[in-house]
Specification:
The protein has 487 residues and is an alpha+beta fold. It contains four helices and eleven strands. The longest helix has 279 residues. Pfam families: Filament, LTD.
């Protein structure tokens, strides 16, 4: 009878180091898991920073491309104006040459007319002299006076005609020369102005060509930088994915090991509790035998029973705490979302992300809407309101949507999306409200998200109380193995 009792009382002692080792391994695995999660968060932050740098570089590249396109258009327009100026200068020079040639032609014509009149005058004198010589013999005296009068009249007539021709030729030639001089002076002025404009245009073209070359070199440098950043980003993404896969595998293995250790620990606790209950039953039986035989109770058996009862109470406390934590998680999951939406215009707030990553707007009209000066106001419970102001030139196209992301959303925004760079997130909470306000202060649209508990089910174990030592003894008597009873 006494030998089995000693064996049963000594058997639970080696279980304490096993439980301590299991707790140490479990704490070590939890610390490793926390370190891995922190490293994953750091890698996510680095990836978000790299993506933000890439988006900034792409925006700068698009801006430089637009400026380069505008400069090319200006160079083309300046080349066209330069060609027009050259053509105009060439035409003016041709006109000047034509006028000089015309002036020379008029001078030659005037000389020819003068010589022709002199020849006619000589011929007339010769004819008159021949006539005078023919009639001189018979009628010299008779016609001398008449001939002299006629000659004088003819001379006067010819002199008057020649003088008239000279005056007319001089007036015509003077007028033409004056016109030619005025035209030449005007053409010289035009040529000087065109030459100055040509020189200024050439200077501007040289300046623009140097700027274009500079922008092209900057564009090439930026493109190479973008390629380097893209390659670095791809490498970081691949490295992050590999590390994430490795960390996920390690986390899965750690979770499996922790689950296995937890199951082993629970099995050990169940075995320990069963052994404690058996020890308590044997203790009661021994006390009953000692009382029946009137023997003094041993102090070691009493201390062992007390230790077993305290360990049973700690186990029941742990089970109670686990049950309450499980119910708390179930209550947090049993929340439902209620949304309130209102809109008095063509633009509405379509969606608010529950995790605070983005807010989405939509234009329901058939016309584009400029959002210059408009504001999105965010309210979260008792937290101070925060306002997001749209860019000055932003326009929401007809029938289109726009998404405003938080700075730490961890996604690549589309070409038509916006990023709230001064705010990492739109925020989370049980009561979130976003209001769209125009530049006149009018509240055009509003959306609210409220989290309320669902209808709670009746919980049967809320009145779970600590089991006393007598109740533990009663339970042990009910679960006692009949093969261990002493007759």
């Amino acid at each position: 009878m006494h030998l089995p009792k000693a064996a049963i009382l000594v058997s639970p002692r080696p279980l304490a180091p096993v439980r301590e080792n299991a707790g140490l391994r479990n704490s070590k695995k939890e610390s490793d898991l926390n370190v891995a999660q922190a490293r994953v968060r750091d890698l996510d932050a680095q990836l978000n920073a790299k993506e933000a740098d890439l988006a900034t570089a792409l925006n700068e590249n698009r801006t430089l491309e637009n400026e380069l396109r505008e400069l090319k258009d200006q160079v083309l327009s300046l080349n066209l104006s330069l060609e027009d100026t050259k053509k105009h200068l060439h035409s003016e020079m041709l006109r000047r040459v034509d006028l000089e040639n015309h002036m020379k032609t008029l001078q030659e014509e005037m000389t020819f007319q003068k010589r022709l009149h002199e020849d006619e005058l000589k011929e007339t004198k010769r004819v008159h002299e021949s006539r005078i010589a023919e009639v001189e013999s018979g009628r010299q005296r008779e016609f001398e006076s008449k001939l002299s009068d006629a000659l004088q009249g003819l001379r006067k007539q010819h002199e008057e005609q020649i003088q008239g021709y000279k005056e007319e030729m001089e007036r015509t030639f003077g007028a033409k020369v004056e016109n030619a001089q005025l035209t030449a002076a005007r053409n010289c002025e035009f040529a000087n102005v065109a030459r100055e404009e040509l020189m200024e245009t050439q200077k501007r073209v040289d300046t623009l060509i140097s700027q274009v070359n500079q922008y092209q070199s900057q564009n090439v440098a930026l493109e190479s930088k973008i390629k380097e950043l893209q390659n670095l980003l791809d490498y970081d993404r691949d490295l992050h994915r590999r590390r994430m896969a490795e960390k996920e595998e390690e986390m899965a293995q750690a979770q499996k090991q922790a689950q296995a250790q937890l199951e082993e620990y629970e099995q050990l606790l169940d075995v320990k509790l069963a052994l404690d209950l058996e020890i308590n039953a044997y203790r009661k039986m021994l006390e009953g035998e000692e009382q029946r035989l009137k023997l003094s109770p041993s102090p070691s058996s009493h201390s062992t029973a007390t230790q077993a009862a305290s360990q049973g109470r700690r186990y029941l406390h742990g089970k109670k705490r686990k049950i309450k934590e499980t119910r708390k998680r179930e209550c947090s999951a049993a929340l439902k979302t209620i949304q309130h939406v209102s809109a008095t215009g063509n633009i509405s707030i379509e969606e608010i992300d529950a995790d605070g990553k983005f807010v989405r707007l939509k234009n329901h009209s058939n016309e584009d809407q400029s959002l210059h000066g408009w504001v999105l106001r965010r309210r979260i419970g008792s937290v101070a309101d925060v306002n997001y102001k749209f860019p000055s030139r932003f326009t929401l196209q007809a029938g289109q949507e726009v998404t405003i992301w938080g700075a730490a959303a961890g996604v690549s925004p589309g070409p038509s999306d916006l990023v709230w760079r001064s705010q990492k997130s739109w925020g989370t909470g049980d009561n979130i409200g976003v209001t769209l306000i125009t530049d006149d202060g009018e509240e055009l649209a509003e959306r609210k998200i409220m989290l309320v508990p669902r209808e709670e089910e009746s919980e049967q174990d809320d009145d779970y109380e600590e089991i006393t030592g007598s109740e533990a003894e009663f339970g042990s008597q009910q679960n006692e193995d009949p093969s261990c009873s002493v007759m």
